[in-house]
Amino acid sequence: MSEKSVAVVDTNVLLNLALPVVDSRPKAPSGADPLKALLAAYDVHVPESVLGELTDATGSDDLLSAAADLVFQAAHNLTTHDVDNQLDDPLEYSLDRGESECIWLANELGANFFLTDEFNSTNYLFINLALEDRNILFTTPHILCTLATQEILPVEYVSAVLTYYVKTKGWDAQYVAQLRQHHLSE
Amino acid sequence: MAEEKTRVDFNAPRSLVERADSVVEILDISRTRLLIDALEDELEELATDEEFRRRLSDAYYDGRIGYDTVEAVLGREEALRMKLLRESIDRTPPEPHLEDGLPSDDAFYDGDIPEWTDAPPSESSDDGSHA
After folding, report:
1. pTM for the model
2. pLDDT in the model for residue B119
3. How much is the average pLDDT of A42-55?
4. Whether residues B60 and B43 fall in one domain
5. Is residue B125 in some structural domain?
């Protein structure tokens, strides 16, 4: 239906992209919308279980709950797949069910890329191992840099939002600094 | 299994050596044993020290130290994670594609964008009169 690249993303990616949009504290950057940018610029697919994980995040007054509400409001831009019966157990490696379903879906669809925020932990290793083609694995900060270099998000916004994530989510600061240096400094 | 040993000579302040020798005598161990223990403790502590890890990963990402060094200091899993991440930095993700620019919020979202703030509403908390 479109020439958009097919992406499979996990729940945390969607929640993290929604965070700065709903966060109206001064430390959150404003003026752009990384969730909208990702979902509009790529053909994004998720297992149905992602919606369940989002539901689990809603229902309180905290920031995460507001972020989950926003993702639900954009859910018609996602293509969901029922992958319930596809997974053999025990699950591969030490990944949880949601992550395993995402990886299965990425392999099944032959997705152009798989997006994760699990790069701070050894889960990153396991995702590499479980993907049929680990060259399709990218991280949210990497894609944000691409959205900036392709002029879909302002470079200043992406730079500010990377700082926001390093501070609020504890993202690997050295890795993010390398991404900035490679992709954002012209 | 005894590991091969290498001899190290170094100069240290006399007073420090004297203090070490006093401790060695009390503990009834060799001066060498004390130095090895102290060095092992220091290396172990550094491996979990945030500032040291920051400098180590800077050095690795900049190419000043190799994979083997990271593995020796941080262990295999952490070293592999950093290796895979470093390799991925140069990869180019598929290009994003927009036909007519980004859609408006109205077209994209079902409803208004929630706004979250951690500050309580300013007038409600002071006088206790909120219903």
Report:
1. 0.84
2. 67
3. 94
4. no
5. no
Partner-chain contact A5 B111, CB within 8 Å: no
b/e burial code for range A13-25 (CB count within 10 A of at least 16 → b): bbbbbbbbbbbbe
pLDDT, mean of residues B18-46? 94
Band the pLDDT of B125: cuts 50, 70, 90. Answer: very low
Task: Give domain status of residue B109, yes or no.
Answer: no
**Do A140 and A117 contact (CB within 8 A), yes or no?**
yes
In angstroms, the CA B39 to CA B41 distance is: 5
Residues B40 and B55 placed together within one structural domain of the fold? no
Residue B56 is assigned to a structural domain of this protein: yes
The rounded distance, in Å, linking the Cα atoms of A114 and A120 is 16
∠ CA A120-A126-A131, nearest 5°, is 115
* Domains within chain A, CATH numbers bracketed: 6-139 (3.40.50.1010)
Residues of A in contact with B97 (CB under 8 A): 2-5, 41-42
Chain B residues within an 8 Å CB radius of A124: 81, 84-85
Residue A114: phi and psi, rounded to 5, are -120, 130
Interacting residues of A21 by C-beta distance below 8 A, sequence separation 6+: A33, A34, A35, A36, A67, A70, B113
Range of the domain at B78: 49-89
Number of domains composing chain B = 2
State the complex-level ipTM. Answer: 0.87
Q: Is B60 found in the same domain as B31?
A: no
B56 and B41 in a common domain:
no
Q: Are residues B19 and B42 in the same domain?
A: yes
For residue range A61-72, list pLDDT tens digits in order: 899 999 999 999
